[in-house]
Amino acid sequence: MTGYGAYGVSGTPYFSTYSLALLNKGVIVAETHVRGGSEKGESWYKAGYKTTKPNTWKDFIASGEYLINNHYTSASHLIGEGTSAGGILIGRAITERPDLFAAAISNVSCSNALRMENSPNGLNNTKEFGTVKDSVEARALYEMDAFQHVKDGTKYPAVICVGGMNDPRVIVWQPGKFAAALQNATASGKPVLLAVNYDNGHFTENKEIAYRNFANMFSFALWQAGHPDFQAKK
């Protein structure tokens, strides 16, 4: 289950080679239309924007509950994924409902929204998420900050956080701090990994590197979700 929910970007149909690879393995792929996107117009976008941002991950959680309640999957098999600004979505979904997911992929993710301004692309993002210089928006940034909501002794799902060493859009310490916090806090015994891409930045035009990264992320998640083709051989 994947989502984005920011900048008014809509989850429109498209051909995806890595989704096809998942489908060929019998995986159900769910694209969520959470608030913060524009699938239902401007009001849908603004209902997941700055102070209304919690609706984004609450919609994602509701989507996961729907899939489970309608027997598409179960909490022991559900994988959640969020990329870039979608890091807010996946980060807050697993910190609010860690019991809902078997595994999570937090890919080049905004995981420490309160500190986003202190990064190369930070000022540009204040137009979407808010600024710490405004007291109301600062409280909203705290609420959407996954790093700040990690709690000791919580049974978190398996998580792989991915960062780009040359990424100016979401600087690598964002997913790095989130991974470290989860590693120190989790009581589930499930692995939390940080994978750093040293070859490119936020995204890449090098297909070999891109497919390697996707293979690593999804292999980890499918392993933890119990897919028989991705279990360690004895």
Structural class: alpha/beta
Assign a percent range to the helix content. 25-40%
Cα Rg = 17 Å
What's the overall average pLDDT, rounded? 95
Strand order of the largest sheet: 1-2-3-4-5
- Shape from CA axes? globular
Number of strands: 5
Distance between the termini: 30 Å
- Continuous helix count: 8
Per DSSP, what share of the residues sits in E-state strands of 2 or more residues?
Answer: 5-15%
What low-confidence regions span 5 or more consecutive residues with pLDDT below 50? none
H-E order: EHHHEHEHHEHEH
Describe the main β-sheet briefly. 5 strands, parallel
Brief account:
Helix content is 38%, strand content 11%.
Plain-language structure description:
The protein is of the alpha/beta class and about 230 residues long. The chain has helices at about 15-25, 40-45, 55-70, 85-95, 120-130, 135-145, 175-185, 205-225, and strands at about 1-5, 80-85, 105, 160-165, 190-195. It is globular and about 55 Å long. The longest helix is centred in the last third of the chain and has 18 residues, at about 205-225.
List the helices and strands and how they pair.
Layout: E1 2-3, H1 17-24, H2 42-46, H3 54-69, E2 79-83, H4 86-96, E3 103-107, H5 122-129, H6 135-143, E4 158-164, H7 173-185, E5 192-197, H8 207-224
Parallel strand pairs: 1-2, 2-3, 3-4, 4-5
